[in-house]
Design brief:
Strand content: 15-25%
Order of helices and strands: HHHEEHEHHEHEEEHEHEHEHEEEHE
CATH architecture of one domain: 3-Layer(aba) Sandwich
Oligomer: single chain
Structural class: alpha+beta
Number of strands: 14
Helix content: 40-55%
CATH superfamily of one domain: Periplasmic binding protein-like II
Number of helices: 12
Shape: globular
Distance between the termini: 18 Å
């Protein structure tokens, strides 16, 4: 059960075909097929089955793929921890951030950190909240920047930074704002701010017209253009508010307090702690708990001011749809 066999199997599960898995791994299709076949023989269970003209994971394959991802993630984390233990300033840091945090919080932090610690190898994954928390759970990320971590996640909140969500709109629309009739522009399902906006409207039992846009920047631009009002981070629109392109609306129950969290696994690497120390030097960040403390209990690890935040979805195992190619 070698690392290369595990990588071939996970690549097949993620890519959806032998051909694409081979392309991603820079190996031949026969190498991927041989590796997965050998792995199935060693486990003595079938990992894939034919489905029409393609392949799909068996139930055993679906279960094993989740474990294989964690094993590979632990191996990468172990390498990063070993390098960091030898010299944290020359270690590896794998960051994962939700899109809004990547847009608003990370650019200046990463630029100043790279200037201060040029020997650290940085990798950044940007995606919706479900993706980044799944990466942390599978040991594919050393540190996540996002909202509150989901209940039950074996993780440590290392730092927090205030973040207020406010309702904004173009000045003419803001002046005529009515909670139940004014159109809203919002993020797609799976987005944290999109979920917060949906929950906000549902709690007030209103259903105004909605226009779903695919990015935080598009939502802000749409609000400035008068397409509707939006629930966004005040930090993201500070310049537009100052310039008069947007106006903050005194909507009932706002602002919503949704602090940013810097969250690591239960055993943060030395290089991760080096970045967190840099982060705590930045304005607004405060320490969020000692390593090993884990995510707080109670109401799903909620912080004060987050009681109305919708529960985050738990990560589900990844399946494999019918694909082309053969083993």
């Amino acid at each position: 059960m070698t690392e290369s066999r595990l990588r071939s199997f996970v690549a097949l599960a993620d890519a959806g075909s032998v051909r694409e898995a081979a392309r991603r791994l820079y190996v031949t299709e026969s190498a991927v097929s041989s590796a997965v076949t050998a792995l199935a023989r060693e486990l003595d269970v079938p990992l894939v089955r034919r489905e029409g003209r393609g392949l799909a994971l068996t139930p055993a394959g679906t279960v094993y793929a989740a474990y294989a991802r964690q094993v590979l993630g632990l191996l990468e984390q172990g390498r990063a921890a070993a390098r960091g233990a030898a010299d944290p300033a020359r270690g590896t840091l794998r960051l994962a951030a939700v899109t809004t945090a990547a847009d608003q919080v990370l650019p200046e932090l990463l630029a100043s950190f790279r200037t201060r610690r040029p020997g650290v190898e940085l990798a950044l994954e940007v995606g919706p909240r479900r993706q980044v928390w799944a990466s942390l759970a599978a040991h594919r990320a050393d540190l996540v920047l996002a909202g509150r971590p989901p209940a039950g996640l074996a993780a440590t909140v290392l730092a927090r930074r205030p973040n207020d969500l406010v309702v904004v709109g173009a000045p003419p629309l803001a002046a005529a704002f009515a909670l139940d009739t004014t159109p809203w522009v919002m993020r797609e399902p799976g987005s944290g701010t999109g979920a917060a906006a949906e929950a906000y409207l549902a709690e007030r039992d209103v259903a105004p017209p909605r226009l779903v846009l695919g990015s935080n920047g598009a939502v802000i631009a749409g609000a400035a253009a008068g397409l509707g009002v939006a629930l966004v981070s005040r930090d993201a629109v500070r310049d537009r508010l100052a310039a008069g392109l947007l106006a903050e609306i005194a909507a009932p129950g706002t602002p919503l307090h949704r602090p940013w969290h810097a969250v690591a696994g239960s055993a943060p690497t030395p290089t991760t702690l080096l970045f967190v120390a840099h982060l705590l030097d930045a304005p607004g960040w405060t320490a969020g708990g000692a390593p090993g403390a884990g995510v707080s209990g109670g109401e799903g690890g909620q912080d004060e001011g987050e009681r109305d935040e919708p529960r985050r979805e738990q990560h589900e195992g990844d399946g494999l749809a019918a694909v082309d190619g053969e083993l």
